[in-house]
Structures are given as structure tokens and as C-alpha cells.
Amino acid sequence: MRGLRDKRVVITGGASGIGAATAARFLEEGSKVVLLDRDEAACQRIRAELPGLCAAFLADVTDRKQVQHAFGNAVVALGGLDVVINNAGISVRHRFLDITQDEWNQVLAVNLTGVFQVAQIAASYMMKHDGGVILNTASTNGIMGYPNYADYNTTKAGVIELTRSMALELAPKVRVNAVAPGYVLTPMQRAEYSDEMLAAVNQKLPLGRHAQPEEVAALFAFLASDDAAYLNGQVYVIDGAETAGGLASR
């Protein structure tokens, strides 16, 4: 990708799954990368797996003070800030009538309020300096209706509208887009789905399989690159054509 070498990149939820794969991809492109994650053990593991990282800092995106502190450390470690991959997220698989108030609050706090806080803090820095790119992780769950994920779906729809609003207000200095993956074979997905459930999902997907985290990482890299300099305020779906024919609702 053009223009990614020496870019200063922060990735939230970066110690596993899509975040870790995205970190690896940006390192391959010659970028400087800092990860933020709330899992200390995962941070230690990813430091060993990706020795090229500038740093991996502990931060819970629901805690604004932690996010501010982590971004301050990240800017020092990187020498500035060019790209933010706003990726931290959680999921609770429950029927709508069984979602508890605590679960609802937790999912919204991480997936929507957390994304807002990271985006606002990052954008405030970028607007005062040389601009940049913010990429928010949405989901096909924010576009289509899916059972058993009412709280998660709600947050991802919110991320999409937040992305569009940010793009309008922060242009031309900061570009903002969202990536909306469908089914991706991540640790979070494996924790919620049995082998039989994964196989059943694969049968309904036109490509016959889940996406790999590295494939989503490639889209993030493109959208952050100079090749995507005119892409702004959009949602880029990566789902193997799952939603193209209404298959998501089956």
C-alpha cells in the first residue's frame, strides 16, 4: 500500500483477533504500531509474537481517563499519531428477552461509548496537528437484523452513524470510515459458537467459510493508505457476499 511506511498507528483491542492481525499487517507495511488492550496477559503475549511493536499499553476503552493516558503514552512512543484503528469490542450472545441490564450496559459501554471516546480523543489530537485517519470497526450486525444479538447489533448500528457524523465534521483534515465484517474466525467467535454452529454458518455463506482476521486487516491497511485518500464517510462490508442476497436473515 502507498503511504503506510512510517505511519504512526494505534490499534485498540489490538492484542488478539482482528486487532492483532491488523497490527501484524501494518508492521509488514513498515508502519510504527502501538496497541491498546485491557487484557494484560494478551498484551504480554502479543509483545512476544510481534517484537516490532513500539509498545502495547493497558487501557479499558470504557474508562476515559485510561484512554487519555494511553493515548498520551502512545503519542510519545510513536512521535505523533496518523492512524487509529478503533477496534475494541465485546459480544454477549443472548435472546432479547434474556439480556440483563448489566449486559446491555457493558456491551454499549465498550462497543459504542468506548468507540466514541477513542475517536474523540484521537480526533482532537489529529485536528490540532497534521490530520489523520480513523477507522471504526462496525459489523454486518449493524446493517442487517440478527437474532440473539440485540445489544451488539444496536452498538454496531451506532458505530456506523457515528462514523458518518465524524466524517462530515472532521473533513478535510481527518478521514473517517467504518469496516463492517461479517463472520470472522476470531477467538471471540470460537468462544460463542460450537463446531456445529460454525459449520452451519459456513453452509449459508456464498464463499463457504468464515473470513480470516488477516483479510479484514488487509482492508484496514488499504483504507488507511494513500491509495484510499478520497474514501471518507463510508461503511465497507467484508462478508463474502453473505448480505448480498439477504442470506443473513436465514
Q: Would you write up a description of this structure?
A:
This protein is of the alpha/beta class and 250 residues long. It has a single domain, classed as 3-Layer(aba) Sandwich (Rossmann fold), CATH 3.40.50. Helix content is 46%, strand content 15%. The chain has helices at residues 17-28, 40-49, 64-78, 101-128, 150-170, 187-192, 195-204, 213-224, and strands at residues 8-12, 32-37, 55-58, 83-86, 132-137, 174-181, 235-238. Helix 5 links the parallel strand 5 and strand 6 (174-181). Helix 1 (17-28) packs across helix 8 (213-224) and helix 3 packs parallel to helix 4. The protein is globular.
Descriptive labels:
7-stranded parallel sheet; 250 residues; alpha/beta; Rossmann fold; single chain; 8 helices; 15% strand
Please outline the helices and strands.
Elements lengths: L7 E5 L4 H12 L3 E6 L2 H10 L5 E4 L5 H15 L4 E4 L14 H28 L3 E6 L12 H21 L3 E8 L5 H6 L2 H10 L8 H12 L10 E4 L12
Helix pairs in contact: 1-8, 3-4, 4-5
Q: How would you sum up the global shape?
A: globular
Q: What is the element string, with H for helices and E for strands?
A: EHEHEHEHEHEHHHE
Distance between the termini: 37 Å
What is the number of helical segments per DSSP (H or I, 4+ residues)?
Answer: 8
- With strands numbered from the N-terminus, the spatial order across the biggest sheet is 3-2-1-4-5-6-7
Biggest beta-sheet profile: 7 strands, parallel
CATH topology: Rossmann fold
Percent in helix:
40-55%
Rg, rounded, reads: 17 Å
Indicate the CATH architecture: 3-Layer(aba) Sandwich
CATH C-level class is Alpha Beta
Low-confidence runs: none
Give the mean pLDDT.
96
Number of strand segments: 7
Structural class: alpha/beta
